[in-house]
Write a structure and sequence with these properties.
The protein is 0% helix and 56% strand. By secondary structure, it is mainly beta.
Length: 155
């Protein structure tokens, strides 16, 4: 099974056999990103409606709506520790959330919207890409930028 996000404001759970198993509704704008949380009982999504939503995969209900971004949410990722999520937004920030809904920290430093967030293998650091043509590595525990990588000449 796998999940897809869409401009039609929905998330769909698909069977590898080809059929749609479940449709998740609740976002009020384009859904930009979806990721499985933990072992697959939950998923998380990010939308242009500026929210992050945590969903019950089997039941289809939105368990929580995380609000705090001031721009559309382009990317969401499960940190992998069973507790935290990260979201990147057009508001130039990355936010670290507890899956229960509490905002833990806001990471600032990009000069344009954050497009992708990916965890690095150590469970402590992550990398972001942005419309400012940079990649940045971050220390999630300290809340700081470790390195800035430049080199792309366009977004």
């Amino acid at each position: 099974r796998f999940l897809s996000a869409s401009r039609d404001q929905t998330i769909i759970l698909w069977s590898l056999g080809g059929g749609a198993l479940k449709t998740y509704r609740g976002h009020t704008s384009i859904v930009r990103s979806v990721d499985v949380v933990g072992r697959g009982a939950r998923c998380v999504s990010g939308s242009d409606d500026k929210t992050v939503r945590v969903w019950d995969v089997e039941g289809g209900a939105a368990l929580r709506v995380l609000e705090g971004h001031t721009g559309g949410v382009n990317t969401v990722v499960d940190v992998g520790d069973g507790v935290h999520l990260l979201s990147g937004s057009d508001d130039k920030t990355v936010k670290q959330w507890e899956e229960g809904g509490s905002l833990v920290r806001t990471f600032e430093g990009h000069e344009r919207g954050v497009w992708t967030v990916k965890m690095l293998g150590d469970g402590r650091r992550f990398v972001t890409s942005s419309g400012d043509r940079t990649l940045r590595t971050w220390d999630m525990v300290r809340g700081t930028v470790e390195r800035v990588f430049g080199g792309h000449t366009d977004q």
